[in-house]
Amino acid sequence: MAYPTTPQGGYTSVPAPGNPRQTEAWALTETARRISLSQSENSSIDDFLAAIRVNWRLWTIFQAELASDECALPIEMRQNVLSLCNFVDKRTVEIIASRDRSLADSLININRQLAAGLFVQVPSPAAPGEDATAPAKPQPTNEVI
């Protein structure tokens, strides 16, 4: 299966460096797209399983980050995302064992939903002396899942 790349072999829509949230959102969206494209019966089972494995690697990276002592996310959010990681692990093993393309729908949906949340700009709290009711200015964030 071919993915959109430049003549040099790089992806055509890679996000700019320096914003981990955007990079994670892009990675989730890209893997969801790859899985979705490979679900078609026109794609080989090898292409489908390769897309599933790429997604699994991405979620393994998330797990490692969430398990790190340096992870800045609140513990409840970490636990919630780690629960998603656990589901992704189990579903991935099930997909690889059964080769059932329809089981990948849940992985695609999880990736897309999480990516949509990461693409949203989170306003920073009002600084002392600022009007908290004034519209917040979008702020770039470097928060990693």
Q: Care to describe what's here?
A:
- This protein has 145 residues and is mostly helical.
- The protein has a domain at 20-119: Four Helix Bundle (Hemerythrin (Met), subunit A).
- 56% of the residues lie in helices and 0% in strands.
- It contains four helices and no strands.
- It has helices at 20-38, 45-67, 75-98, 105-119.
- Helix 1 runs antiparallel to helix 2, helix 1 packs antiparallel against helix 4 and helix 2 runs antiparallel to helix 3 (75-98).
- Residues 1-11 and 135-142 have low confidence and may be disordered.
Distance between the termini: 29 Å
CATH fold name of the domain at 20-119: Four Helix Bundle (Hemerythrin (Met), subunit A)
In percent, how helical is the residue content? 55-70%
Task: Provide the structure class.
Answer: mainly alpha
Low-confidence stretches: 1-11, 135-142
Q: Tell me the β content.
A: under 5%
Q: Which radius of gyration do the C-alpha atoms yield?
A: 18 Å
Outline the biggest β-sheet. none
The CATH architecture classification of the domain at 20-119 is Up-down Bundle
Find the count of extended strands (DSSP E, 2+ residues): 0
CATH class of the domain at 20-119: Mainly Alpha
Order of helices and strands: HHHH
The number of helical segments is: 4
Overall geometric form: globular
